[in-house]
Amino acid sequence: MEISAQQIAGLVGGTIEGNPAAKVNDFAKIEEGRPGCISFLANMKYAHYLYETESSVVLVNKDFQLEGETKATLIRVDNAYETVAKLLTLAESMKPKKKGIDSLAFIAPTAKVGEDCYIGPFVSIGEGAVIGNGVVLHPHVSIGDKATVGDNTEIHPNAVIYHDCKVGQNCILHAGCVIGADGFGFAPTPDGYEKIPQIGIVTIEDNVEIGANTCVDRSTMGSTYVRKGVKLDNLVQIAHNDDIGSHTVMSAQVGVAGSTKIGEWCMFGGQVGVAGHATIANRTQAGAQSGIPNSIKKEGTTIMGYPAIDYNKFWRSSVIFKNLPDLNKQIYQMEREIEELKKRFENKD
Asked: Is 138 a catalytic residue?
């Protein structure tokens, strides 16, 4: 589909500098721009590409100051990054969606499947499962007995929803994610470890996105919760009986141990680890590879390091840490000098 700069400006409330009739039919990064593409400039590290890009249209912030000539037509908007995200969402929504049930899918006789769904080849839907309207299940998805999937949710290939678990509306679950595997519960005995049955479920609320190969374990009793609007990256581990607060985001390889409650609007960088039975306050931000051993009570705290401490203290401490070898030498040198001074005073006496 081809669309003009004038039409795009009308959609996003932007103002045009250049040719309003410029046409685009694809997106491209500004440094890889091609004729017929639309790009955006939000990070000023990439500003120099604006003057050489081949893209036909570029979104820029209203306050951006040009320092030279550009071949591209500019559309000035309040926030170029947010605007391109909206355009990408619009373009994605206009793609034709598959519908129907593939002949190679298996649907148990007692399962219920809503209207306008797509059930791909080798999908398995268990007894008593309920699939909402407009759901998309890609090939090899497995939906366990009595599990539920809400309206307009899309589940990508090889994802598994275990029995009795609940997935809300408008969710996206990426390839290979596992919802409802047993929590890591074992009781030590003289003969080894005895498995503790995990009889609870997982509840995924609405508008959640879960990355590829991420695992959310079922609870020992009750439910593990991933609240509305949560975004989990690839390779994230959410343990049994956790409660992940609404609109929290976690980057790749975050691990949250069991029975931990994460607040709303938290942000965890890659490889953050959180100890079990902790409570993390709303809007906590943890830098990459932070280790959080205890609860965080103050909202809006920013932490980093292992064990995690205040972000500013961490950076001040890191300056000292990298200088420790030199400081150690200086201390030894001072000790030797002090010993020499002691001997001199002793000799005088």
From this structure: no
Paired tokens of 123: 């999908």
State the residue range of the domain holding 348: 320-349
**CATH number, position 30:** 3.40.1390.10
Say whether pLDDT at 19 is over 90. Answer: yes
- Residue 69: CB atoms within 10 A of its CB come to 6
Among 224, 218, 138, CA closest to 174: 138
- Mean per-residue pLDDT for 57-86? 94
Contacts 24+ apart (CB under 8 A), 223-227: 224/183, 224/200, 226/202, 227/264
The answer to whether residues 298 and 279 touch, using CB atoms and an 8 Å cutoff, is no
SS3 330: helix
| CB contact at 8 A, 19 and 9 | no
Which residue, of 93, 128, 158, is where some domain finishes?
Answer: 93
Mean pLDDT of all residues belonging to the chain: 94
∠ Cα 62 68 69 (to 5°) = 90
Neighbours of 238 (CB within 10 A): 29
**Angle 276-277-282 from CA coordinates, rounded to 5°:** 100
Q: 191: exposed, middle or buried (C-beta count within 10 Å: 0-12, 13-18, 19+)?
A: exposed
d(CA 108, CA 143): 10
CA nearest 302: which of 280, 324, 321?
280
CATH number, domain with residue 201: 2.160.10.10
For residues 85 and 77, give the distance between their C-alpha atoms in angstroms, rounded to a whole number: 13
Catalytic residue among 138, 174, 240, 247: 240
β-sheet bridge partners, residue 309: 304
Place of tokens 């079922």: 218
**pLDDT, tens digit, 9 for 90 and up, residues 153-177:** 999 999 999 999 999 999 999 999 9
**Cα–Cα distance measured from residue 73 to residue 45, given in angstroms and rounded to the nearest whole number:** 20
